[in-house]
């Protein structure tokens, strides 16, 4: 692991995205909750959040981080689902891997839950959109 002992703690946030491409008919069934495995979006959202929390267990040299917030959102389009994942913490290292893992696990869960009705799906464009860090300013009351 990379040594971070000398680094100052900062507020850190990262946002990632990915896309599940699928048939419009599959998306319509998903919207109507008519797929065999049930409420696909809710299960995928929870899976993405859990994936972010388990990142250090999945990526061998990734620092385990106390996550303060993880969010997974879906934007439904005609033949694709855009997946947005964000992670936040206060720490000495960033949360890019946690945001990317959230998106990846959510995409894999969507794929798994839709594969019975759509054999032509693909997961594309998983990437980091943004990472931010902000120094923690100590308040001094006089």
Q: Report the count of strand segments.
A: 4
CATH C-level class:
Alpha Beta
* Widest sheet, order of strands: 2-3-1-4
User: Per CATH, what is the topology?
Assistant: Alpha-Beta Plaits
Please give the share of residues in helix. Answer: 25-40%
Order of SSEs: EHHHEEHE
The helix/strand class is alpha+beta
Structure annotation, total helices: 4
> Can you give the mean pLDDT?
94
What is the CATH architecture assignment?
Answer: 2-Layer Sandwich
Taking the sheet with the most strands, its summary is: 4 strands, antiparallel
Q: Name the CATH superfamily assignment.
A: Molybdopterin cofactor biosynthesis C (MoaC) domain
- Spans of 5+ residues with little confidence (pLDDT < 50)? none
Strand proportion: 25-35%
What does this molecule look like?
This protein has 142 residues and is α+β, with helices and mostly antiparallel strands. It has a single domain, classed as 2-Layer Sandwich (Alpha-Beta Plaits), CATH 3.30.70.640. It is built from 4 helices and 4 strands; from the N terminus they run E-H-H-H-E-E-H-E. It has a 4-stranded antiparallel β-sheet, covered by helices on one side. Strand 2 and strand 3 form a beta hairpin. Helix 2 packs antiparallel against helix 4 (96-114). The longest helix has 19 residues, at 96-114. The N and C termini lie far apart (41 Å). The mean pLDDT is 94.
């Amino acid at each position: 692991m990379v040594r971070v002992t000398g680094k100052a703690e900062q507020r850190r946030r990262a946002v990632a995205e990915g896309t599940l491409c699928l048939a419009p008919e599959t998306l319509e069934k998903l919207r109507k909750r008519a797929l065999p495995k049930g409420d696909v979006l809710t299960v995928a959202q929870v899976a993405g959040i859990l994936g972010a929390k388990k990142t250090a267990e999945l990526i061998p040299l990734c620092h385990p981080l106390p996550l303060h917030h993880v969010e997974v959102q879906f934007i439904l389009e005609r033949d694709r689902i855009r997946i947005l994942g964000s992670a936040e913490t206060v720490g000495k290292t960033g949360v890019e891997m946690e945001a990317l893992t959230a998106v990846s696990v959510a995409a894999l869960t969507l794929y798994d839950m839709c594969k019975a009705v759509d054999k032509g799906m693909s997961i594309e464009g998983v990437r980091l959109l943004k990472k931010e860090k902000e120094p923690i300013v100590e308040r001094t009351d006089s």
